[in-house]
Structure formats: structure tokens, C-alpha cells
Design brief:
Layout (H helix, E strand, L loop, with lengths): L1 E3 L9 H16 L5 E5 L18 H21 L4 E5 L3 E2 H8 L3 E4 L4 E3 L13 H9 L1 H10 L3 E2 H7 L4 E2 L3 H13 L3 H31 L5 H13 L10
Parallel strand pairs: 1-2, 2-3, 3-5, 4-6, 5-8
Antiparallel strand pairs: 6-7
Helix pairs in contact: 1-2, 3-4, 4-5
């Protein structure tokens, strides 16, 4: 579990970025079978501390985004297990972009989301626009980014950005993560690899990698055990170990 707990607003200052980078590095080094990202406090995050941007040159700004892609967004997406984000309140800028790098986003009814970088003359640069476009379409991605407006959980659920809305989102997210962690972890990783191939190269590329990615599952303990369980006692009784 990765929890944002950095003062009343969970602002992404350098210390917060460093902590998240360290946590993701630890998850990458020893991947669990499922991950939950959540926050403490009234808000998930009020965004980035603007001091992070003050006085940067063009090259320094570009390097900042390169580092955040390389150390947060890309390794988070590459974790070989399901990653769930729980938004219980306001979720702005960096936190929203991090949620979009997760596999599943759950939200409370009162949660609000926004990419409000236009207030400082910036565009979201941790992958938000393109990941929004993937989930909701390019027109809605441009609207959300260009207006800088806040959007409620129900609206983003109707757009396909939020997967589900729950009154007790923390409990729902914990239950989902526990369920996914008990599942066929290697198969979940294969699903992520196939979807990633589609994202980078379309259906043809995903089709090309599927035989190898899926074929490897036939040598896993989980598949062999689940097939045997299905044949012996019927569906839904297999126990998975993640191997």
C-alpha cells in the first residue's frame, strides 16, 4: 500500500515526490500481488507545490518531467500486478495524473478531480492528457485540461475515467485489492502486458505479443493448479499463489 500523508493538503513538494519515488522503487524491487494507492486527510492531494516550478529553465523543466515519467508514472504502470487508486476527496494535478497511471480508479461520491495547471500557465506533463484521452476520448481530455475545471466522480465515471463510485471508497478499494491479490497474479500481469502493447502499437501489436505472453502462463503453477482444480472439483475453487 502507498499512502499519501504529507500535511493537510498532501501537496507534492520535492519531499513528497521523493517519498513517492522511493516507495515505487521499493514496489518495483519486490512486487506485491496487488497495490493500493490512497491518501490520509480531507483531500487526496491539492496538487503540486508551485515552488517546485519557480525559476526553472526550459531544460530544467523538461528534465523534471523526464524524471517523473521515469521514476513514477512508467514504473507504476509496469508493476506486474493490479494497481488500484482510491480517491476519497479532492484529487488535483500530480495526484490525478498518478491515478491515471493505475489500472483501476475508485472514487467516493464527493471526490472531485482536476488538472488545473493552466492557473500557472502550464499543461499537465506527467501523462495526464494522453491517459485521459485513452479513457475518455481526446475531446473530453482537451476540455478537462483547457478549462481547468473540477469534475465530480459521477461525471468521470460516466466518461470511463473512474471505474466505480463507492460511498466508502477506502473499504471498497481495500476489498478489491485483497480480491485481486488472491487472484492469478501472473495472468493479471499478462493482461497488463497485452493492454500495454495495444496502447503502444494498436490491435496488431497486441495480437502479435499475445501468443508469447499468454503462452508463458501454461508453465505457471497457478494455471496448472487451476486447470486441475477445475477438472477435479469445478470452477471457482482454485487457490492461487502468484507463481
Amino acid at each position: 500500500m502507498l499512502t499519501f500523508a504529507h500535511g493537510p493538503l498532501n501537496l507534492f513538494d520535492q519531499a513528497m515526490f521523493d517519498a513517492v519515488i522511493a516507495d515505487i522503487a521499493s514496489l518495483t524491487a519486490a512486487p506485491p500481488r496487488a497495490v493500493l494507492l490512497r491518501a490520509e486527510g480531507k483531500v487526496n492531494s491539492a496538487g503540486v507545490d508551485v515552488h517546485v516550478f519557480d525559476g526553472l529553465t526550459a531544460e530544467q523543466g523538461a528534465e523534471l518531467w523526464r524524471e517523473l515519467f521515469a521514476q513514477i508514472c512508467h514504473p507504476l504502470e509496469a508493476l506486474p500486478c493490479p494497481v488500484v487508486y482510491a480517491a476519497h476527496g479532492l484529487t488535483l494535478t500530480a495526484a490525478f495524473e498518478i491515478s491515471l497511471a493505475c489500472d483501476i480508479i475508485l472514487a467516493a461520491p464527493k471526490a472531485k478531480f482536476g488538472l488545473v495547471e493552466t492557473v500557472v500557465g502550464l499543461t499537465p506533463s506527467m501523462g495526464g492528457p494522453q491517459r485521459l484521452a485513452e479513457r475518455a476520448g481526446s475531446g473530453r481530455a482537451r476540455e478537462l485540461v483547457m478549462t481547468g475545471d473540477l469534475y465530480d466522480a459521477a461525471t468521470l465515471a460516466s466518461w470511463g475515467v473512474v471505474n466505480a463510485v463507492h460511498d466508502d471508497v477506502d473499504a471498497a478499494a481495500r476489498a478489491l485489492v485483497a480480491r485481486l491479490a488472491d487472484g492469478p497474479t501472473r495472468a493479471h500481469d499478462a493482461t497488463k502486458q497485452i493492454v500495454a502493447a495495444w496502447r503502444s502499437g494498436g490491435i496488431a501489436h497486441a495480437d502479435a505479443v499475445t501468443p508469447t505472453v499468454s503462452g508463458a502462463l501454461f508453465e505457471t503453477e497457478d494455471l496448472r493448479g487451476a486447470v486441475r482444480s477445475f477438472l477435479d472439483v469445478g470452477p471457482g475453487k482454485a487457490v492461487y499463489t502468484g507463481k
